[in-house]
Amino acid sequence: MSIPLTVVRPRERKPEWLKVRAPGSANYLRLKGVMRDLGLHTVCEEARCPNIGECWHHGTATFMILGDVCTRNCGYCAVTHGRPAALDLDEPARVADAVAAMELNYVVVTSVDRDDLPDGGAGLFAETIRQIRQRLPWCRIEVLIPDFKGEAEALYTVLDAGPDVLNHNTETVPRLYRLARSGGKYARTLELLRHSRDYAPAIPTKSGLMVGLGEEWDEIVAVLRDLRDVDCQILTIGQYLQPTASHLPIGRYYHPDEFRELKAIALEMGFGHVESGPLVRSSYHAHETAEGYFTSSAAGGPPALPAR
Predict the structure, then answer these.
(1) Residue among 222, 238, 225 at smallest CA distance from 286
(2) Is pLDDT at 114 greater than 90 in this prediction?
């Protein structure tokens, strides 16, 4: 590559392209109030997403179900880990209430890992989809699911509920899985995406990758190729940002030009839609990302998202 690497040194300031405005708009505060009133969690807050101000200002959020305590302890993730509380069976209805109150056309539902549950929480994912469908039939639903420890039946439970997009993040290159993804397996991730395409070919699959953990360029490209080999259609690529000093350090910052090059490589491989940039996260601009996929002539998918 001709683009120079940007090496991260201790206490180095973030590049200008990673600076965002602190949240605080009226709509941000309104949405925060809705979440607190209904006792809901969002990955935007729990994972300390840098885009929370922008997304909440525009009235979009990623709901996090199955509580706010994860049974895994991934080295990059700010979500609390430990022993989760008992399953909250009323949570799907409250999520649907929030979606209705916000009058959303598109919603993303994700969760912590719940390895303590026999189905990994798949049943609650399915019930959340059904509750939202009942309240807002026109709303498109993306689910960002855990790997369910590779249990195909749990995946099928979610797919049978009919989400519009099935998202499962790859996160990093296989060499770094043992370091970064506690309890995760690279082969399991690919198998989940392949199973989803085989079982429900009408539901597009999506995956996200973060860069800056110490991977090599060729390793990133190899992951993109693996994702296309299992027919993953939608891809997001973003910069890893260290949540706290106790999390994995940043290997380096990627320049926006490098993200543009990765997008070009991915599109050349045949991905239907790619979002690639320093601040891109799996759920960032999820509505626009899905619409870009569904309306692309190459995808041959369903019509554009409904206007309201």
Answers:
(1) 238
(2) yes
Q: Which of 161, 136, 128 is nearest to 40 (CA)?
A: 128
Q: How far apart are CA 226 and CA 174, in angstroms?
A: 11
pLDDT digits (tens, 9 = 90+) for 46-66: 445 555 555 555 556 688 899
Going from the C-alpha of 142 to that of each of 19, 155, 175, 194, 205, the distances in angstroms are: 28, 14, 29, 17, 10
> Does this model's pTM top 0.85?
no
Identify the three-state secondary structure at position 220.
helix
Rounded to 10 deg, the angle between the 217-229 and 256-269 helix axes is: 30
Residue for token pair 């919603």: 107
Q: How far apart are CA 62 and CA 283, in angstroms?
A: 7
CA 269 to chain centre: 21
Domain definitions of the chain by residue range: 22-294
Q: Phi, psi (5° rounding) for residue 254?
A: -90, 140
Dihedral pair phi/psi, residue 269, rounded to 5° = -75, -20
C-alpha–C-alpha distance, residues 284 and 133, integer Å: 22
Three-state SS annotation for 119-158:
CCCHHHHHHHHHHHHHHCCCCEEEEECCCHHHCHHHHHHH
Q: Who's near 291: CB < 8 A, 6+ residues apart?
A: 304, 305
Among 213, 238, 232, residue whose Cα is nearest residue 270: 232
The residues pairing with 230 across neighbouring beta strands, listed in sequence order, are none
Residues 127-163 have pLDDT tens digits of 999 999 999 998 999 999 999 999 999 999 999 999 9
Q: Torsions phi, psi of 153, nearest 5?
A: -65, -35
Residues in the chain: 308
pLDDT at 37: 67
Torsion of CA 294, 205, 171, 262, to 10 degrees: -40
Whether the predicted pLDDT of 109 surpasses 90 = yes
| Cβ-contact 69, 102 below 8 angstroms | no
Task: Identify the CATH homologous superfamily for domain 22-294.
Answer: Aldolase class I (3.20.20.70)
